[in-house]
Amino acid sequence: MEKDDFQKELIHFNEVEGIIRNKLEKLYREKAPLQERLLRERKEMWEDNRHLIRDFDDVIFLNTQETIVKSVEQQLAWNEADIQRHAKMEKSPYFGRVDFLEGEEGEADTIYIGVYSLTDEESQEIYVVDWRAPISSMFYQFDAGPAWYEVHGHKNQVEITGKRQYRIEDGRLLSVYDTDSSMYDDILGQALSEYSDHKLKVIAGSIQREQNAAIRSDTKSSCLIYGLAGSGKTSIGLHRLAYVLYRDRETIKSENILILSNNNIFGSYISTILPDLGEKPAQTKVFGDFLEAFLGEGLEIEDYYSQLKSIEGPYAEERIKWIQIKYSAELLEYCIRYFAEFPFRIPEIRYEGEVLVSQELLQSKLDAGHYHTFQSRRERLEYLARRAIEDYFLLHKEEIRDSIAERGMERNEELSEKEIYALYKRTRNEYVQLAMDGIGRLNRLDSGKQMAEVFARYLRRAEVPEGDEEAQRMFRSLERGKLLYEDALFYLFIKELMGEAAPFSQIYHTVIDESQDYSLLQLYIVRYLFPGSSFTLLGDIYQTVNSVTTMQRYEDYEKVFGSGLVRIRLGRCYRSSSDINALAFRLIDEEERPIAEEYSYFARTVRKPQYVICRDMFSCLGPILERLEKYRSVAVIVDGEEDALAVKAHLQGQKEAQLLLSPDDEMKSRLSVIPLLLAKGLEFDAVILFGCIRSNEKNAHMRRKVYLGCTRALHELYFVEREALPEGLRECEGYMEIVDYYGRPCTGLQSAPEVR
Questions:
Q1: How many CB atoms lie within 10 A of CB 652?
Q2: For residues 589 and 595, is the Cβ–Cβ distance under 8 A?
Q3: Do 2 and 164 meet the contact criterion of CB atoms below 8 Å apart?
Q4: Distance from CA of residue 246 to its chain's centroid?
Q5: What is the pLDDT of residues 381-431, one digit of tens each?
Q6: What is the DSSP string of 522-538?
Q7: 485-523 burial: b if 16+ Cβ within 10 Å, else e
Q8: Alpha carbon 566 to its chain's center
Q9: Whole-model pTM?
């Protein structure tokens, strides 16, 4: 870039910074009077008027005061949000620029793009455009040449004449790049080389073309965004949420958004993304919250991680058999049909001994309809019974009125026409209510018994041995108040199908992270709980570490979300260095269709992963951690809880390390000790996989577990093991530096020398 160009950019930057500073000064000036007014209004409301409620006028006055207080509170909240937003803009007001020609005469225009928009209040000139605005899509989607952006379904054709990116830190313009997509790698490489902390970062300035397509895909449709570890699924999913809030801001607010994950460690990791993008935080939940909310107090439910541990145990075969049945599409679809066609018992409806409508006729009318749910079928039965009674009363109106008048005369009462009509209506309504009560009485259903009944019916139909016994075991467990995780899921599903789990009608968009770890049963449950929601599903089937409780094919998502589900593949991995990604790709490579045919990784060299063979594994930790002191986030990842406790005990007094054992924990320390399954979705500057290969050597999913662990590392990766690579990983030797405690090459060693 020419020196004159940089000077012009510097002048523009200073002008923008001046507008931001002026706006901040104005906001701070407005804040103090708002705070004083709020205190004054509150005092007047709660102190001066607390004894004045004597009549209705006082109530109206107090309500007016409350409205004023809420209005001032809202103004103050807007003021504080504006201050925070402009304070962030002052540090970095924009990151990109697009120059283009628009219209038939090719009128030149320029937009600067940032995380937030900026408009000069006096001139109304737009200085910075929000990255989510339709016109900003050109920055991500096109290089110089013909381009377009879409507004309200209309494509505006333009000619891009130039693009620039900026490096701005702490209110200083450091560098300016003339760019196209071929230069993004250099800029992105610099961003990826930075060290990480325990919060996911905003990437609006480095979003790649394929990622932009995922973010801006149809917000009304559910979308599956899938790709390998480090392809940006979580970041893109959360930036898509910010886009949904911008695109549909008239109908969707942050409180209408839900982020669903498997543990709260992930919740703390992503907690700042939406606020950093200028939006209020969304609701975050773990799936277990729904089990606790809907299955009631006093019911002890096995947790998700205990289930995973049990199915890897030595006597898991029998349990796995029943889990696979309970999670199967065949059973779930059978249950949906069973309750949509539920055989409700129909009462006999009579009036003074005469049958108003036969049970057979009501049954035939009920079966003639097509119902999607248990509730709609029951509502139809109630409607048919009510309509039959009302039709009968209408058809025999005069007879019934005469009968009412005669009974009045028998009591020496001469009823007026108005009184007769009122009694006629009351009688009709009483019979309607009797019919509704009869339907309720005959169909008083227990969801626990229905769970066992429908399960047993399915198993008998499928000719599964011991099906009745398993159904009864489930029901007895429920009666004792103690359920296995899969039984709790199935029970909640049945309650949903019976209309006993009230859906969340105010959630309009849901993000499910690590969705490959959900079973079909869990996804059905979520779909029923949020009937008015569209979904963004984030997944990588190569991170599934068992084939029992997880999604194994992307096509299976359509069974829950329908054939209209949009599928978007993120084909490039950005998180880890080239050497770590090369190892990761080798771990999950498939002979029939090599991973490299569908995926690639960003070229960024740091150093090869080190495989350290040491008989006293704990003695290696200190020296390796010393080498990693420069990093802001380091994890020692182990296979399970016992290993985590042992590592923490060894480090006590040497290194300050946070032990993360519960899904409810929150990352706070620079150094974490964490079991492998809890590390899903997280990333660290450096990772030590401590004994993870040895612990899983006989596990059928060992390669995927190692893949999961090594892809947590951005820059450096270490394996610490007592023995050389097992036979099942021997072909990965070329992707590592295999050394002993002293750093000496020891390729082929079967055991390590003692440390002296």
A1: 10
A2: yes
A3: no
A4: 18
A5: 999 999 999 999 999 999 989 888 988 888 888 888 899 999 999 999 999
A6: HHHHHHHH-TT-EEEEE
A7: bbbbbbbbbbbbbbbebeebeebbbbbbbbbbbbbbbbb
A8: 16
A9: 0.87
CB atoms within 10 A of CB 11: 10
Look up tokens 């620029």; give the residue.
97
The owner of tokens 């009302």 is 390
Closest CA to 743 of 752, 734, 735, 751: 752
The pair of three-digit structure tokens given for residue 140, joined into one six-digit string: 């991500």
Q: Compute φ and ψ for 421, nearest 5 degrees.
A: -65, -40
C-alpha to C-alpha distance for 279 and 381, rounded to whole angstroms: 46
Do residues 634 and 668 touch, judged by C-beta distance below 8 A?
no
Residue 234 phi, psi (nearest 5): -65, -45
Q: Could you give the 3-state DSSP secondary structure of residue 659?
A: strand
CB atoms within 10 A of CB 63: 10
Q: How confident is the model over 429-488, as pLDDT tens digits? A: 999 999 999 999 999 999 999 999 999 999 999 999 999 999 999 999 999 999 999 999
What SS3 state is found at 320? Answer: helix
Residue 327 tokens read as 């999670």
Element holding 87 (H helix, E strand)? helix 56-91
Cβ 300 vs Cβ 482: under 8 Å? yes
Lookup: tokens for 570: 């993120």
| DSSP H or E stretch at residue 224 | strand 223-227
What CA–CA distance (Å, rounded) separates 509 from 247?
12
Alpha helices by DSSP H, 634-748 = 641-651, 692-695, 702-710
